[in-house]
Amino acid sequence: MSDNKQAAPAVSNEWPLWEVFVRSKAGLDHKHCGSLHAADAKMAIQLARDVYTRRQEGTSIWVVPSNQIIASDPGEKGMYFDPMEDKVYRHPTFYQLPASLDHM
Amino acid sequence: MYTQAMSVGPQDVAAKVKTAEEAQREEAFEARIAAGDFIEAKDWMPEHYRKTLVRQISQHAHSEIVGMLPEGNWITRAPTLKRKAILLAKVQDEAGHGLYLYAAAETLGTSRDQMVDALHSGKAKYSSIFNYPTLSWADMGVIGWLVDGAAIMNQVPLCRCSYAPYARAMIRVCREESFHQRQGYEALLVMMQQGTAEQKAMVQDSVNRWWWPALMMFGPADKDSPNSEQSMRWGIKRISNDDLRQKFVDATIPQAEILGVTVPDADLKWNEAREHYDFGAIDWAEFWRVVGGDGPCNRERLGARVKAWDDGAWVREAALSHARKQATKVQAA
């Protein structure tokens, strides 16, 4: 995790922060689109509608308290994701088949 | 809307003495930027990069929020229901843009309260353009055309800013903002093509008042822009103030001709050799006076923001108490 973030004020009367995920149309997945402050979940949904879907960008909204998101450590990005780089045999293109049935 | 103030602010103090490890991290960071990589919120970044971004993004957010005031002034007096609905939608967009940007700044470890406090105490700047009054309905059209036009020109390069949360916010802002400029121009077109002589004169008067402040939105000349060079190197800023200003003038003059208005600049002339318009000198004394707090509406704008914040305090507190009470009830059950 980041080690150079400024400390938040000890006592905060700020409304909690929520992450907003919007499904743009039926059949697609919810996608993260931003965050906002709201006193509770119901208000977070209402505000998300006003802030992130003013032009019919969504058909469904999820909100999640930001402090509930657990993220991988960016400092360990290499250790975490690089090992997959040399596993070309996990991709269909690795296998050469006769041209006549290459659509398999 | 947008802030010219991005490059206006105290020169940041030079970095303190670095340890070998810090120097190494900084070198790796610079290499990432040079390679065109995006920086995410939790990635390591030099303190100066973080501070520069907090200042720029929060000033940008403040500008969106304060920018609602000059236009809000005309919502109740819009000439038709159609124009009122358009203006409401535009002002609501500005609020949304402010929120996207505050959220982007918060990823850098500053709180919303800290930013709001910096605005209200006068410590943080917002775009000076909003310290000019909106005297006629034509100002609503001219703000859309010139002020949002200048904003878009400034903001498009920011969609490629090296700090990814800012770039993502800007992509959303730019996508929404092109309607702002078009609705303004169209409102002016109606007045210029179907209006009375008095209405046409009102449009020309408005252009006369907004032209120079709009050119100032691009910030001080490159030679007087102390933070620009570092921001360019870090990929926070992509095009210089003067280059953007020239681009704006070149794009806008043909639009003025179609509209049938002139800009108040006797030195404006197409330069065949440069293939750009030459234009007159900007009154930088006025610019610095308005940045410094002495524009026509500085006190009024800030006063309106502080009043709105103070008057809303009981709502924020009540909503929070209610939420806490509900949470306690759920826990107890």
Keywords:
heterodimer; A: 104 residues; alpha+beta; three-stranded antiparallel sheet; 2 helices; 3 strands; elongated; B: 333 residues; mainly alpha; two-stranded antiparallel ribbon; 13 helices
Would you give an account of this structure?
The complex is a heterodimer of chains A (104) and B (333). Chain A is of the alpha+beta class and 104 residues long. In chain A, 16% of the residues lie in helices and 20% in strands. Chain A has helices at 41-52, 77-81, and strands spanning 17-23, 30-37, 60-65. Chain A has a 3-stranded antiparallel β-sheet, with helices on one face. Chain B is mostly helical. Chain B has 13 helices and 2 strands; from the N terminus they run ααααααααααββααα. A two-stranded antiparallel ribbon of chain B has the order 1-2. Classes of the chains: A alpha+beta (104), B mainly alpha (333). The interface between A and B is medium-sized, with 29 and 34 residues.
Total beta strand runs of chain B: 2
What's the main sheet of chain A like?
3 strands, antiparallel
Shape of chain B: globular
Radius of gyration of chain A: 21 Å
Greatest chain-chain contact: A-B, 29 and 34 residues
Arithmetic mean pLDDT of chain A = 88
| Annotation, overall tally of beta strands of chain A | 3
Q: SSE order of chain A, as H and E?
A: EEHEH
Brief characterization of the structure:
The complex is a heterodimer of chains A (about 100) and B (about 325). Chain A has two helices and three strands, in the order E-E-H-E-H.
Helices, strands, pairings?
The complex is a heterodimer of chains A (104) and B (333).
Chain A: E1 17-23, E2 30-37, H1 41-52, E3 60-65, H2 77-81
Antiparallel strand pairs in A: 1-2, 1-3
Chain B: H1 20-34, H2 47-66, H3 68-72, H4 81-106, H5 112-120, H6 138-155, H7 164-194, H8 197-216, H9 228-233, H10 241-259, E1 269-271, E2 276-278, H11 284-294, H12 298-311, H13 313-332
Helix pairs in contact in B: 2-4, 4-7, 6-7, 6-8, 6-10
